[in-house]
Design goal:
This protein is an alpha+beta fold. Strands 1-2-3-4-5-6-7-8-9-10 form a 10-stranded antiparallel beta barrel. β8 and β9 form a beta hairpin. It starts with a helix and ends with a helix. The N terminus is likely disordered.
Length: about 260
Amino acid sequence: MRYTWLAATVFCMAMNGVVHVRGAEDEPASRPGASGASAKRTALQEALADFNPLIGEWRGIGQPVRNSNKDSWKESAAWVWELKSDQAALKYTVSEGKLLRSALLTWDPTAREFELQATLPDESTRKYRGKLSGNKLTVQTVPDDQGREHQIVITQLNEKRTLVLFQTKGQGQTQFNRVAEVGYTREGTKLAEEGVGGPECIVTGGRGTMSIVYKGKTYWVCCSGCRDAFNDDPEGIIAQAAERAAKKKAAGTKSADKPKS
């Protein structure tokens, strides 16, 4: 009798769109990406980790001529992580820029170089490829039909100051020539201030700027992309962060134990 009543109740509620019978396929761990980031995504994140300081909002001044206000302009930009189950990239979006509208920075593990897919203000696109040397990422295009090449150099001076230099060279030329350089200052900071500091992003290890509460505990993320990745799989992200911290601690211990010469 009890089971008959229960079955009837479930049937009536289902007819009214109230009940959802939860099966194994509905568990969070079986949603796409919810079982934890793939090894591929983790490797791509690590390859892009040097660009963590770029995450956030920036205000910039573009100068065709170095140290001159002639034909200069103001723009704003933002860098965010774009994370999928097996992909990792950094998205660069520019507002009121004259040379760039947006770009997607990825790592090519086969060629072992970075790729920047750029969208220009006129909606045309360019593909740049190159390498990171110290604090400078230099990427350039292959020659176009007229033999012209384009180059972008992103220099991270510190956590609150970044330069993006645009250059080009024509067919037969041996050196790149300046088009313009955009000097960015992190939004909300001043050049005279000492570092920006702050908590660490649990997804990438970058600078945390927004908090998330999960099971009564507060975690920090650096951008909307990392926030979405955490919300999709909090347990997996927490486990990865713990593993990352353990590796960092082990590396520090190993370095401290190394005999000094």
